[in-house]
Amino acid sequence: MLKLAILGFLHDRPLHGYQLRRHLAALTGHVRPISDGTLYPAIKRLESDGLLVRETEPGTAAAPRHTLHLTEAGQAALLDRLRTPDDLDISDENRWFTVLAFLRHLDGEPAAQAAVLRRRLAFLGEPASFFYDGERPVGAEEVDDPFRRGMLLIARATTRAELAWLRDTLDALEPGPR
Amino acid sequence: MLKLAILGFLHDRPLHGYQLRRHLAALTGHVRPISDGTLYPAIKRLESDGLLVRETEPGTAAAPRHTLHLTEAGQAALLDRLRTPDDLDISDENRWFTVLAFLRHLDGEPAAQAAVLRRRLAFLGEPASFFYDGERPVGAEEVDDPFRRGMLLIARATTRAELAWLRDTLDALEPGPR
DNA sequence: GGACCATACCTCGTCATCGAGGTATAGCGG
DNA sequence: CCGCTATACCTCGATGACGAGGTATGGTCC
Fold first, then answer.
1. What distance in Å separates the CA atoms of residue B176 and residue B178, rounded to the nearest whole number?
2. Cα–Cα distance, B106 to B84 (Å, whole number)
3. What pTM, to 2 d.p., does this model score?
4. Are A97 and B151 within 8 A, CB to CB?
5. B138 and A CB contact within 8 Å
6. What is the mean pLDDT of each run of 10 residues along chain B (178 residues)?
């Protein structure tokens, strides 16, 4: 997820580590802050995988800044990841939102964007609950526990909003009668 | 999060590992499945911390089943964790839902339950976005990118539903005029 | 009687993440 | 000129999650 976010941000413009840190803090920080000890090793991994290069600019600031640039392999890796996200990217909301944040980078490929949205649509379409009576998912109305009822109500509201948005956006991506 | 969920399920009734696995699969599995390699070591950790004990029942099934019972220390740890969840439990939706799933275990302490809900209320009350124009959070209407707009719309719908539920539930927990 | 699946448990190596700590410089207020 | 904060980067040890693999038995289907 971190890897995806780093590649996604760098696709827009080269950044140095500190700027990246602040972009990441805005994107996911209020929910799950990332620490230096996570970010810098991740940058190193991407660098040694040849997905980005760093250019040292001395002078400007306190420590020598390393401006990070995506390589062609890095761009390819980003686009590939966006085209074929793995199942966790689809089901886990945090990861899914990271995909959404950068899905625009598949600009020239509306069909690929639509395919990703369809996968999320299929996932949301499956009947699912947090609690089961045998095989049958238990609905909010059947639950006495007010906290568990809350979970189900909130999840339902989210799913509804997302389905509406997914349908609208898919219509826009796939124009014409279907 | 796994620790919390295990303790929470065992508070209801003793279970063996396999049953636990299926309960966990229902609770968080559609979003983020937990593997054996995560579950069994987690059980061992809890056991060596004295939070649960296992009683071997031979015979019933294929492998000797270890029925897991919560100890008093385990119950205390669960209730304590529910009373004072850490910040990530409040902000990360996956973790927050796990707290909600078991908050009922603080049955006799409506004030403690209300205090936890208030923390979530405060978190949701902070103005937050995924994207910032300098310091100012950017609203859904200002975003051109349809995917990023979707993120903001979905997040807003979720927040709204959750705020409504939080207020209702807090009113029920704290009766009388305020 | 053989294939296969569900039940039930476990280990191991690998990897990502985290928090705590460290090292600098620049700039500002007092 | 001292302390503080922001900028900017890095390391290290511990933890925990993961997937792949292994070991059984019991039941069902054909």
1. 6
2. 11
3. 0.91
4. yes
5. no
6. 93 90 89 90 93 78 78 94 92 93 94 96 87 80 93 95 97 75
